[in-house]
Amino acid sequence: MIGSTRSVRVFAYTLPTDMRKGFDGLFGMVKSHLDQDPLSGDLFLFVARNRRRAKVLHWDGTGLCLYAKRIEKGRFAKLWGGEDVAKVELTNSELSLFLEGSKLVGKVPISPEKMCFKCLTNHGLIERIQHAEAGKNHRR
Fold first, then answer.
1. How distant, in Å, are the alpha carbons of 4, 39, 48, 85 from that of 59?
2. Which end of the chain is more exposed for a tag (fewer CB within 10 A), N or C?
């Protein structure tokens, strides 16, 4: 696993990247193409056109780290579908699977979306629950 045990975000640049780029070139791409802060501690994934090489740029708090991998058999999975999307956010688990060469078919949400009290009240869920509880208390 790249990075620390703290919660970090992972951003994948979806367009092919020139793997000759180093620290400074990828730093500039994070700022200009991904609209993110390269010094945030997040991970930034870049993949070559032929999907046989990948690099991850990471600020560890003391300096920039650049991790590179050349896959020996096959190609890295293509995590993105359209040319109109410049970045995709991944989980740390998805990044690990990707770098291991897993045959991923795409992103599928595995966690429910965060719920807020206002969302529940706007859809009447709270009122239905309160009504059901009132009915139970009335029957007693």
1. 11, 5, 21, 24
2. C
